């Protein structure tokens, strides 16, 4: 019997669309880990420092943000700044011609057959407030969730019996939390 195993890509391809005519484009970031006004303030501080990003608007209740991008370098810088701040999101870009490719590493277990784990640790996750903590804890109702460190980027540890790493990664990503620097045992 042949068993096929799918592996999480070492690099995921993310396409950002930027207007070819003027070198500008509009970006919408959806599904961000925005659970309070403090989250929105943190994201705003991060993105205001990105060169080539303008007209930034953050809506924490909708968990999304929009901005204008000067060029493809601004798109790359935007993505890098989000990841370094511990955010994860889905991009929606205006219908333009020029495609900018960004790659980032996603560490994870093979999808499909997996060995159950008892603990999963995510490092450098955006957890700036009680709202973020409640959102992550709600994702793992049958597990114990702890937060380590100070500031807006923390380590999240999830402990439980026979957990599925891929399901945990998916839950964290869909909630807008970074899953880089993850380990399981």
Overview of this structure, please?
The structure is a single chain. The chain is α+β, with helices and mostly antiparallel strands and 185 residues long. It has two domains: 11-105, 2-Layer Sandwich (Alpha-Beta Plaits); 117-184, Alpha-Beta Plaits (2-Layer Sandwich), CATH 3.30.70. It contains four helices and ten strands. The longest helix has 13 residues, at 72-84. The chain starts with 10 loop residues before the first strand and ends with a strand. The relative contact order is 0.22.
How do you describe this structure in short?
The chain has helices spanning 37-48, 72-84, 130-139, 165-174; strands spanning 11-18, 25-30, 53-59, 64-69, 90-93, 98-105, 117-126, 144-148, 153-163, 182-184. The protein is of the alpha+beta class.
Uncertain segments: 1-22, 95-113
The description of the largest β-sheet is: 4 strands, antiparallel
What's the count of strands?
10
Task: Round the Cα radius of gyration to an integer and report it.
Answer: 17 Å
CATH second-level architecture of the largest domain: 2-Layer Sandwich
Shape: elongated
Beta fraction? 35-45%
CATH topology of the largest domain: Alpha-Beta Plaits
Main structural class? alpha+beta
Helical stretch tally: 4
Number of domains: 2
Share of helical residues: 10-25%
CA-to-CA gap between the ends? 29 Å
**What would CATH call the class of the largest domain?**
Alpha Beta
Major sheet strand order: 3-4-2-5
Mean pLDDT: 78
Order of helices and strands: EEHEEHEEEHEEHE
């Amino acid at each position: 019997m042949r068993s096929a195993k799918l592996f999480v890509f070492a690099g995921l391809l993310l396409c950002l669309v930027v207007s070819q005519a003027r070198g500008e484009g509009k970006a919408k970031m959806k599904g961000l880990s925005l659970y309070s006004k403090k989250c929105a303030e943190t994201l705003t501080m991060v993105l205001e420092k990105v060169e080539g990003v303008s007209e930034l608007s953050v809506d924490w209740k909708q968990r999304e943000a929009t901005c204008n991008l000067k060029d493809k370098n601004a798109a790359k810088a935007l993505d890098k700044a989000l990841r370094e701040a511990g955010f994860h999101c889905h991009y929606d870009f205006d219908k333009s011609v020029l495609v900018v490719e960004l790659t980032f590493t996603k560490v994870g277990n093979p999808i499909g057959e997996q060995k159950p784990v008892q603990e999963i640790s995510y490092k450098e996750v955006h957890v700036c407030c009680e709202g973020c903590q409640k959102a992550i804890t709600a994702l793992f109702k049958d597990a114990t969730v702890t937060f380590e460190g100070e500031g807006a980027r923390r380590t999240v540890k999830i402990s439980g019996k026979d957990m599925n790493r891929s399901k945990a990664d998916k839950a964290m990503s869909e909630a807008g939390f970074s899953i880089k620097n993850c380990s399981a045992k």
